[in-house]
Amino acid sequence: MVTTLQNTVRAETGAQYTPVIRIEGLRHSYGSRTALNGVSFDVRPGEIFALLGPNGSGKTTLFRILSTLMLPVGGRSLIAGFDPAQQPDEVRRRIGVVFQAQSVDIKLTAAENLWHQGHLYGMRGAMLQERIAEMLQRVGLADRAQEKVETFSGGMKRRVELAKGLMHRPSVLLLDEPTTGLDPGARRDLWQYLHELRNQERVSVIVTTHLMEEAERCDRLAILNNGEVVAMGTPAELRSEIGGDVIILETSDPESLALRIEQRFRIQATVLDGKIRIERREGHRFATDLVEAFPGEIESISISKPTLEDVFIHRTGHRFWTQGQPEEKK
Amino acid sequence: MAQAAVTPASMALPRVNPLLPAFTLWWRELVRFYRQPARVVGVIVSPLLFWVVIGAGFGSSLKPSAGGQPQNFLLYFFPGALMMIVLFTSIFTMMSVIQDRNEGFLLSVMTAPVHRSSIVLGKVLGGTTLSAIQGLLFLVFAPLIGIRMGLEQFLLVVLITLLVAFSLTALGFAIAWKMESAQGFHAIINLFLLPMWMLSGALFPFSNAWKGIKLLMVINPLTYGSDALQLTLFPEKLGSTILPLWPSIAVLAAFTILVFIAGFVIANRRSTVPAA
To answer: For a surface tag, which of A224, B27, B168, B227 has the fewest beta carbons within 10 Å of its beta carbon?
Structure first.
């Protein structure tokens, strides 16, 4: 009963929304290096929106601009109706920020960290004490309130960060790579909490990540590559644009085989990392055709449902993690 | 059934009283200080060490000269040593700005709706409190070398020490804000702040200095702090300094305001490079 009600509310607001974040043609560069090359997108109220992209794609730059730490070179952004470049204080009142870097003071206790944070937002006295207790309760650290943060595990520190960002009840929460360095359990807890926050308090969440499986948990996402949005939509929408399955072939001479496959079946076959990659509806049937058409040439064949990484490859023509970048997909 | 699980996301947004963030940053500075026992020991022991080692070393090698300076160098050096203690503590406490930036704490301060002058005030008052305490602890040694102070003199020394501490801490803040490493900060201290102290009349009096050096001493704001201390502690040597007592204090106060504004301007600037 309750869930149905919530779903209706969400569907309605999704239909006729005013965006809580609007980004129009945002550009930025560090010297001669372009970091953002005309990025535009909207975030709806009460949704979890992911910015997915490899290192150097412009996520952090975008994050810095939205969190008022830096002015963009060109373009405009609006958060809850205010431009971070023009009215930083109005934006600062409304956003909660959780940084990738640790911003808690480890020499202070969890409660002290929140006490200082509350003061920065004009909270004080009994009301502040109540809020500290409430937040520590919610992130499950009520029993460790009086312990110094330096004695905490990585996951606990991250929860203090989250509590810090939420002290002043922001309507928009910005998180930069929030699960970096967390074990799978802590990661799951964090995401569960973000969903609760969205459902119960209708906080809009914008989160940067380089992890496909995290982007899958969001309502919508934008995929960034070299400072440009290469794809945007719900995870299901993005996957469906692949139009079928992804078939990967291993063979001794991929270039020549790819060419012959293209000639024979009139489809696109690309070579990536020495493997042939084909997007095709009803992949299992097509696989049989392939093996029959080129007997003995195919060493291995795999068919899978498209992932967000396939969307990324589809749009950019290269892998998400190119060589030289850390392979930390898991 | 009628219970609403949804709380309003945006509540009333009251203006933040600028003193509250300043207070909280000041308090944090003090808490961090006493949670690091090595720093506490340093504050109490180092004044004694400075004075005994440097002062006694010089004092035995320098014959009491004629001219306007006090009978022995240990006595003359007393205000200079106080200045040095305040200088070092003030500047070094502002290394915490670099640390806050590197550790990330500054990020959460910079994204809070806090006027930038509150940030400067909080940090600088934190450093000022610590260095002024250290400087005033040093006054305990004054009677040992025969300096007698009345209440009025004592209060004047407190005022001058606070001004020197605040201005130097604000200077440290302004320098540290753009620094990325503690090493770079050290380089600046050696190149710029140490000579500033040496040329403040802390080591040798203005009247004995060369012409070129005299000019540097006149434009050095610390000279007026040093002079003000000399004039307060040794009123009988009036006339050997650049300005009388109160004008010296006025120059020091003007310098204090100037560096505070500089710190604010530097921290308040927003640009297309990351602020923290």
So the answer is: B27
- What ipTM was reported for this prediction? 0.85
The DSSP line for A72-121 is -SEEEEEETTB-TTT-HHHHHHHEEEE-SS--S-TTSBHHHHHHHHHHHT
Task: Name residue, tokens 């102290």.
Answer: B197
Per-residue pLDDT reduced to its tens digit, B119-170: 999 999 999 999 999 898 888 888 877 788 889 999 999 999 999 999 999 9
Q: A117 near A155, Cβ under 8 Å?
A: no
pLDDT digits (tens, 9 = 90+) for A75-95: 999 999 999 999 999 999 999
pTM, full prediction: 0.84
Instruction: Give me the residue from B9, B14, B36 closest to A122, CB to CB.
Output: B14
Which whole number is the average pLDDT over B36-41?
87
Would you call B275 exposed, middle or buried from its count of C-beta atoms within 10 A (0-12, 13-18, 19+)? buried
pLDDT, mean over chain B: 84
Q: Angle, to 10 degrees, between the axis of helix A154-166 and the axis of helix A110-120?
A: 30
Q: How would you classify the pairing of strands A33-43 and A269-272? A: unpaired
Rounded distance, CA A214 to CA A219, Å? 11
Beta pairing, strands A204-209 & A74-79:
unpaired
Contact B32 A95 (CB under 8 A): no
Tokens of A258: 């790819």
Give the Cα separation of A180 and A98 in Å (integer). 12
Chain B environment of A146 (Cβ under 8 Å): none
Nearest to A120 by CA among B26, B187, B179: B26
What is the residue whose two structure tokens read 């300076």?
Answer: B69
CB of A236 less than 8 A from some CB of B: no
CA A139 to chain CA centroid, nearest Å: 21
Is A14 in contact with A44 (CB distance < 8 Å)?
yes
Task: Please tell me the number of Cα atoms within 13 Å of B263 on its side-chain side.
Answer: 30
Per-residue pLDDT of B203-260, as tens digits, reads 888 888 888 899 999 999 999 999 999 899 888 765 567 888 899 999 999 999 999 9
Whether B272 and A122 lie within 8 Å, measured CB to CB: no
**Closest residue of chain B to A90, computed from CA coordinates:** B113
Structure tokens at B80: 């200079």
What ranges make up the beta strands (E) of chain A? 21-30, 33-43, 48-52, 74-79, 95-98, 172-176, 204-209, 220-225, 228-233, 245-251, 269-272, 275-280, 298-304
- Is beta strand A220-225 parallel, antiparallel or unpaired with respect to A48-52? parallel
Say if CB A269 and CB A262 are below 8 A apart.
yes
